[in-house]
Amino acid sequence: MSQFPILSLMLLVPLVGAVLSMKSGRETARVIALVATLIDFALGVVLWTHYDVGGAQWQFQERAALFAGFEWKLGIDGIALMLIALTVFLMPVCIGASWNAIEKRAGEYYAAFLFMETLMIGVFAAQDLFLFYIMFEAGLIPMYLIIGIWGGAERIYASYKFFLYTLLGSVLMLIAMFWMVNEAGTTDIPTLMAYDFPASAQTWLFLAFFASFAVKMPMWPVHTWLPDAHVQAPTAGSVILAGVLLKMGGYGFIRFSLPMFPIASAYFAPLVWGLSIAAVVITSLIALVQTDMKKLIAYSSVAHMAIVTVGLFAFNRQGLEGSMVVMLSHGVVSGALFLAVGVIYDRLHTREIARYGGLAINMPYYALFFLVFTMASIGLPGTSGFVGEFLSLLGVYHESSWVALISTTGIILGAAYMLYLYRRVAFGDQKNADAAAMLDLDAREWAMMVPLVAVVLWMGIYPESFLAPMRKDIGALEARVAIARPKGDADVKTGANAPATSAAAALATAQLKGVK
Amino acid sequence: MDFIHSLFAISAEELISSAVLVLLLVAAWGGDKASRAISIAAFAVLMAAAFLAVPVLTGGVGGQATLAFGGHLKLDAFAAFAKLLIYLGSGVTLIIAPAFFDRFKAMRAEFPLLVLLAALGMGIMVSANDLLTLYIGLELNSLAAYVLAAFLRADGRSAEAGLKYFVLGSLASGILLYGISLTYGFTGTTSFDGVRVALGTGTLSVGATFGLVFVLAGLAFKISAAPFHMWTPDVYEGAPAPVTAFFAMSPKVAALALLMRVSLDAFGGQPGAWQQIVIFASLLSIVIGALGAIGQDNIKRLLAYSSINNVGFMLIGLAAGTPTGASAMLVYLVIYIVSSIAAFVVVLALRDAEGNAVESIAQLGGLSRTRPGLAAALAAVMFSLAGIPPLFGFWAKFVVFQAAVQAHLVVLAALGIAASVIGAFYYLKVVKVLYFDEATDTVRGGEPFANAVLLFASTVFLSPLGYLLTRWLGALAGSAAAALFHFA
User: Fold this and answer.
1) What global pTM score does this model have?
2) Three-class SS of residue B445?
3) Cβ atoms < 10 Å from Cβ of A271
4) What is the rounded CA–CA span in Å between residue B81 and residue B89?
5) Which chain A residues contact residue B470 at CB under 8 A?
6) Is residue A341 helix, strand or coil?
7) Rounded to a whole number, what is the distance in Å from the CA of B115 to chain A's nearest CA?
8) Out of B383, B390, B468, whose CB is closest to A134?
9) For residues B299 and B278, what is the distance between their CA atoms, to the nearest angstrom?
10) Between the CA of residue B9 and those of A283, A313, B41, B147, B227, what are the distances in Å?
11) Do A268 and A206 touch, CB atoms closer than 8 A?
12) Which residues of A touch B425 (CB under 8 A)?
């Protein structure tokens, strides 16, 4: 199986679909898009089932020396596998969400989405630094068009802001990449992940990468593009944005910042924590007062992604695994929440919370699905949200109980704004006649919701399926960052750990002095 | 022996100059009716000249054998690379021009001849190995270019552009000549090798520094680098569109190649003296090009500012002062030329129902509905010029910034790339008009078949498929750049 270029094929299928649908009419284009994404989903299932858990770190490797300066080089580990799985799972749902909603220029719309899918898979599968950068940056163009052409009233402002924010974040990363390649003499990501850059250089390399990933993530205070982009984007655009694009930031931290610059990561961990806990509290409070449903969910995304960064920079297994699960769970749940908003937006064409009310009466099944996703967003045990948040917060508790304490308020505030949203939309009186007249889910919407609920519950009840493929890679990452792990406030008391800690500290000091 | 050898070495130039003389006679007898035939013949001559230049390019690094006429000309791989681009740009001009001028009943037999003369001058510029040869080539090109800018005699804007170009261009030539005389005065020679040896690597005398600064200032005018860029928007806007396209392609290559040769060869021993000037001009060009373009509504003025901006990026490669940097500049030039071809073919296609040129960007609103192919090509050019992957324009910026980082100019690279985000804003503005705005349905009419082919080919080149050329392009540019650093 390793000989068969399945990753290239997964990149090719949506690309071919994009070219075919570009000139097609609406009816043809959406069928092409659905078929292409379903083929990719099937390939994703094959990929997962053939992934050898506990086997080689990098699997399904392919390479072709097509270009000067960098290579066509693909390969995945467990972390990339999970994120690719998330992508191929969400894409057919997105096409389903656009099925009736997109009326103008549908051919180009589906082409942009399929092109986006190629690039997203490419980001996670790239094993060459510059190939990664190209895939990472190229996503700006289709997303700019998706927001700008098919978005809401303020779409032009939102599309500019999205584009320029993310571009400015990324270009500095490119300069840092040049420096790294010049220093290490290779563009191969696995090699670079084991390369020890001089401690003095790590600081600014980290900051350059941080500028890019923090915007993409997005971290407070550079998150302001996200609410605009989310609110203006069409439903499927929001799903992809929240579901996959934000994960690129987290993936960047896991793949680049932490293993390549462990010392700088440890040095800047307090900064990351500080920004993250600020984000958790501030954006949760902002979410509480929103009157626009999409904006509320957008702010909740910022809060959830802050839990991811908190966990990542905990430098231990629980934190790293937890962050990955939060990313996967948030990808599914926030995508599902945007879909849920999209379902009623398609009927009433407004996102104002006050225009709805009492939907549990006339749309009972919708209310049920919405409730499950709300609970998953809050982190109710048994849903996917719980597993990741629990692990992340546990991980950071080992490092700093204060950070853990403040981050945990995010869960309480999360419950507050999500339940408040749910109450206003689904419960109460049927204040508005038009909202009360809306029909419940149709077959297409059932087909979108059921898989999402299934995954939310699967991830909540048996997270091992998702944790197992990543376990070895998370372990490797933990070992890699162990040299620089800052001493947490949970370490101090245990005498038995003292020799290990001092050995680690000695290693770290040796590194700091610039062994290279 | 040397004379015979020299005559063989400059066969491309001989071909062009004798062709110009013959075609001039044809024009004198045939009149304007013969203009199409002359255009075709001139195009064939350019292609033949390009064919003659190919063996030198692929022949590897040459030594003494590449020198001609006692070292006045250096016909190395670098010159051949630049010539190929120059002939390509001139050839494209000859393809796109007749249809344009025919609409004004202004196609005259002189047009292809002037383009040929300019190409001849540029060929001499890029092979110059002596300050005087340099000047002769530059003036031959410039004089032809002044006339070309004013070629639409009935159009006031065209005449104005020609006059402006002439006055400012003459001033720049004067500055350049003054710099040449100072350099000669302080080194006692006009040959590049002599200047390099005479200046040495030690401290530069004040007079020689002045000479260097004036030479660079004169050349900066020719490549329209800030702060000598002021003529560019006016000339680009006023000159007939095919001539603007010509200015954006061939003379830019020639002047940049000349600047590279002068900086890296004649003043190659004194990088400290010119590097700061180049860095200053580069950053200023990037910023002025980007900021100036934001307020423009005329697509030709926008492209003028874009060319200033792009020259800034190319100068980053020169600032590196390494073979990698020089090769990066050449790769950038190739991609920039192709972007210009695509951009100007689109500009030529923008006409309203009466056949008048549509130059206002606001009138292009919703072009993606009425003319999807044209809009997609222009959007690809815009994203490519902005350097957004996966379009091929990204590769141009990629190699240039990589060279700068390798030469330890990290701060320059970081500032330059951060300023490129400002540039992205106005390119995005064009895409926004094309795709997001309501359709105005101003642009009508089709384009000639040849233009459509050119547009298609250049857009494919700028698409991600262009990356498949990187190895080949990199190897050619690499050998050309190596020749530049190969001193006899």
Assistant:
1) 0.90
2) coil
3) 12
4) 13
5) 67-69
6) helix
7) 35
8) B390
9) 28
10) 72, 65, 23, 30, 37
11) yes
12) 160, 164
Helices (H), A154-224: 155-184, 189-193, 199-216
Distance, in Å, from the CA atom of A211 to the CA atom of A343, rounded to the nearest integer, reads: 35
Q: CA B430, CA B453: separation in Å to the nearest integer?
A: 23
Q: What is the Cα–Cα distance from A141 to B383, expressed in whole angstroms?
A: 8
User: What DSSP designation does B378 have?
Assistant: H
Contact B84, B53 (CB under 8 A): yes
- What are the angstrom distances between the C-alpha of A407 and each of A394, A400, A431, A478, B4? 11, 11, 37, 22, 84
Length of chain A (residues): 516
Distant-in-sequence, close-in-space partners of B136: CB < 8 Å, separation ≥ 6: B121, B124
DSSP B389: T
Interchain CB distance below 8 Å, A148 and B389: no
Task: List CB contacts (< 8 A) between A69 and chain B.
Answer: 398-399, 402, 470, 474
Residue type, A322: G
Largest CA distance in chain A: 72
Q: Is A315 exposed, middle or buried (0-12, 13-18, 19+ CB in 10 A)?
A: buried
With CA atoms as reference, report the closest residue to A276 among A233, A226, A218, A225.
A218
Query: Helices marked H in A313-354 — which ranges?
Result: 317-348
Contacting residues of B for A133, CB less than 8 Å apart = 389
Helical packing angle, B372-386 and B323-349, nearest 10°:
160
- For B99, counting Cβ atoms within 10 Å of its Cβ (0-12 exposed, 13-18 middle, 19+ buried), the class is middle
DSSP state of A488: P
How many secondary structure helices (H) and strands (E) does chain B include? 20, 2
Say how far apart CA B238 and CA B363 lie, in whole Å: 19
ipTM exceeds 0.85? yes
Single-letter residue type at B233: P
Do A356 and A425 meet the contact criterion of CB atoms below 8 Å apart? Answer: yes
DSSP-assigned beta bridge partners for residue B73: B68, B128
What single DSSP character describes residue A514?
A: -
Separation CA A330–CA A337 (nearest Å): 10
Q: How many angstroms separate the CA atoms of A403 and B28, rounded?
A: 87
CA dihedral angle for residue B175, residue B181, residue B184, residue B190, rounded to 10 degrees? 70
The DSSP H or E segment spanning B73 is strand B73-74
End-to-end CA distance of chain A: 40
Q: pLDDT digit of tens for each residue in chain B (488 aa)? A: 578 878 888 888 899 999 999 999 998 888 888 888 899 999 999 999 999 888 887 765 554 457 888 888 888 888 889 999 999 999 999 999 888 888 888 788 889 999 999 999 999 999 999 999 999 999 999 999 999 999 888 888 899 999 999 999 999 999 999 999 999 999 999 998 899 888 888 888 888 899 999 999 999 998 988 888 889 999 999 999 999 999 999 999 999 999 999 999 888 888 888 999 999 999 999 999 999 988 888 999 999 999 999 999 999 999 998 999 999 999 999 999 999 999 999 988 888 888 788 888 888 888 888 888 888 899 999 999 988 888 998 999 999 999 999 988 888 998 998 888 888 888 988 888 888 888 877 777 777 888 889 999 999 998 888 888 888 898 889 888 888 887 75
pLDDT in tens, A263-302: 888 888 889 999 999 989 999 999 899 888 888 999 999 9
Q: List for chain A the helix, strand, coil content (%; round to 5).
A: 75, 5, 20
- List, in sequence order, every residue forming a beta bridge with A72; answer none if it has no partner: A64
Q: Measure in Å the smallest separation between the Cα of A181 and chain B Cα atoms.
A: 9
Nearest to B13 by CA among B108, B117, B167, B141: B117
Task: Give the CA distances from residue A412 to residues A234, A380, A394, A417, in Å, rounded to whole numbers and listed in that order.
Answer: 30, 11, 16, 9
CB contact under 8 A, A164 and B474: no
